[in-house]
Fold this protein.
Amino acid sequence: MKEIRQVLEKINRAWLNGRPEELAEYFHPDMVIVHPGFGGRAEGSQTCVQSYKDFTRQVLRPRDKDRGSGPQLVRANRPN
């Protein structure tokens, strides 16, 4: 169980820190991601990695220099 948790933490750190290309190490070649509301799907590890790249471009933005380095997760297209 500890090993699984470590892999999940690495996956989360990769995409949350704007490094989705690192996900390829963990994705099966025949992986499928079904988009929310079944509005499409990504098939194959490289296509799934690209879907994470596209997603992170929409929801991650650089932090202000006063708030530290690295990207931060922001809520896109949602009311405050």
Summary: The chain has two helices and four strands. Strands lie at 32-34, 41-43, 60-62, 71-73.
